Amino acid sequence: MTYTTPKTLTFPEFIQDYGDNPNYELIDGELRNMEPTGLHELVAGKVTARINAEILRLGYDWTIPRTCLIKPPATEATALRPDAIVLEDNKLSSEPLWSREPVITLGSSIKLVIEVVSTNWQDDYARKVEEYALLGIPEYWIVDYRSLGGIEFIGRPKQPTITICQLVDRDYQRKLYRLNEVIISPLLPELVFALNDVMPPV
């Protein structure tokens, strides 16, 4: 039996071959299939709709782009593709790649990032927590509607959970919300919804 090492990609190679493919992101040169399903996309769409409605209600100059990559400046071959990202419009003129590609490199452009957990849950609960904190992103939501995360992250018994990570100093402080619990977002304190509101139909 032979083992074949996965092909590694540079950031420019990834952009050229997979930049417009929403199924993939790049982590340390390794191509990752995000494994989206219809239910995953449904949950992501419901969460995004609620946030967008609140942004419009408040009249903020924030945007949720249809597709967007984050290139952490400290890593050469990483391109993260969040399920939703909230950008501050007046900061985008400082983004070096934005006029040519939907790529964000500066954490100061980002207000909020959301990941809906798939089977590669380790990335959402560990690697991306580190990357997003290093970028200084104020808030990061992890929506784990299938209870896929490890017990150390979502507790026992495992159950559907939204984790709201708020940046304090340089680290995220996490607060877990279960079904029937109204989430509290420091970024959008008047936003009212619970995980039940975005769960797929039974």
TrEMBL record:
It comes from the Bacteria. CDD domains: DUF820-like. It holds the Pfam family Uma2. Residues 13-195 form the Putative restriction endonuclease domain. InterPro entries: Nuclease_put_TT1808, Restrct_endonuc-II-like, Uma2. This is Putative restriction endonuclease domain-containing protein.
